[in-house]
Amino acid sequence: MMREYQICTKTIMDTSDPNIIFDESGVSDYYHNFHNVMLPNWHPNEKGFIELMKVANKIKNEGIGKDFDCILGLSGGLDSSYAIYVAKEIMGLRPLVFHVDAGWNTQQAVGNIEKLIDGLSLDLYTEVINWEEMKDLQVAFLKSQISDQDLPQDYAFFSALYKFAKKNKIKYVLTGSNISTECCREPEEWGGYAGIDTLLVKDIHNKFGKRPLKTFPLVDILSYKIYYRYVLGMQVFKPLDLLPYVKADAEKLLKDKFGWEKFQHKHHESRFTRFYEDYWLPKKFGYEKRRAHFSSLILTGQMTRDEALERISKPEMDEAFLRQEFEYVANKLDLTVDELQAIFDAPNKTYKEYKNKKFLIDMGAKVMRFLGLEKRLFR
Asked: Could you tell me which CATH number the domain at 42-370 has?
């Protein structure tokens, strides 16, 4: 049965998340989880800074004699860009900057990467994904009709980085993931599938793909969560959680110091992700990831609820631009506009209609929450 529509009175999360829970005052569990679970354990202050520098010293000491003491993935977007700045200028580290080119970079993202690398005098390693394999997997996912259309890109980004770190014996992986702008996690129905599920990828590709994925990087979640971490000793660290990270301030700092250009919205550094989140997901499935993005900013005091409601009342990009992007995506994927439209118009499905490891992933998420290692809501 369809639930009666309801929206959180504190954030803008609503019943498009079918599992959202409201209290008697109409306040959602996202708000309560942030204030009761996340906030007491989040220290973007002097306490956090002491811990940040403690970790920095540990990484530096273990990196003596090596070309690099850590690795950090850079997309050109705000979170990873600011993390690079923090790693070099505040923590005093020598990171290898790792970029994965999956074929969808905007010129703005490319420009931002160049400005940061030059301005911070860092080394950049770029791994270019085989476009024919990338394209084939993306078309297969589109034909699968699931909402999680950004998984091929995400899997390429993280798998390539983990594989490179393993091959080059780099122990510390820094990430721009953070509480400040991401405390409200998108539910799985919105395309928030957690972890790299190779079983899901292979089943979808076997059903709809046309060419073998000979070089496409895939590291299963069980490998990097267990083998990479507990056998190889690889550690993932989130520096942005240990110092003040305000979106507008970070954008201004990067612009003033490096000429970095801010994006209209989160994830707009990838042309496909921009199209997927601004057109495909809301129009085909009725899901707005902006709800989670804006709710995170509301919870951390960077946006008012009224501002969020006003902004989400209209598309981020105008209709004419989005139709041009529809044609661009179709052409880039070697589909006609009519073929992509036919995929768009076909019935929606979920990952549950394909082989997957979601049960194991959910078990892992529950264990991490129990141990206090993950404090966001997972569902």
From this structure: 3.40.50.620
Closest CA to 109 of 240, 258, 267, 290: 267
What is the residue-level pLDDT of the chain in tens, covering all 379 positions?
Answer: 578 999 999 999 999 999 999 999 999 999 999 999 999 999 999 999 999 999 999 999 999 999 999 999 999 999 999 999 999 999 999 999 999 999 999 999 999 999 999 999 999 999 999 999 999 999 999 999 999 999 999 999 999 999 999 999 999 999 999 999 999 999 888 876 778 899 999 999 999 999 999 999 999 888 888 888 888 899 999 999 999 999 999 999 999 999 999 998 998 999 999 999 999 999 999 999 999 999 999 999 999 999 999 999 999 999 999 999 999 999 999 999 999 999 999 999 999 999 998 888 777 666 656 656 555 555 5
Name 98's bridge partners.
73, 125
Picking from 373, 49, 73, the residue whose alpha carbon sits closest to that of residue 217 is: 73
Q: Which two tokens stand for residue 285?
A: 């499935």
DSSP 8-state class, residue 4? P
Rounded to whole angstroms, the Cα distance separating 110 from 78 reads 13
- Cβ–Cβ under 8 Å, residues 81 and 116: yes
DSSP string, 143-166: HHT-S-TTHHHHHHHHHHHHHHHH
Bridge partner list, 223: none
3-state DSSP percent of the chain in helix, strand and coil, to 5: 55, 10, 40
Q: With the C-alpha atoms ordered 218, 223, 229, 232, is the resulting torsion angle positive or negative?
A: negative
Chain centroid, CA 325 distance in Å: 21
Residues 6+ apart with CB under 8 A from 77: 109, 112, 176, 263, 266, 267, 268, 269
Q: Where are the domains of the chain?
A: 42-370
Q: How far is 108 from 262, CA to CA, in rounded Å? A: 9
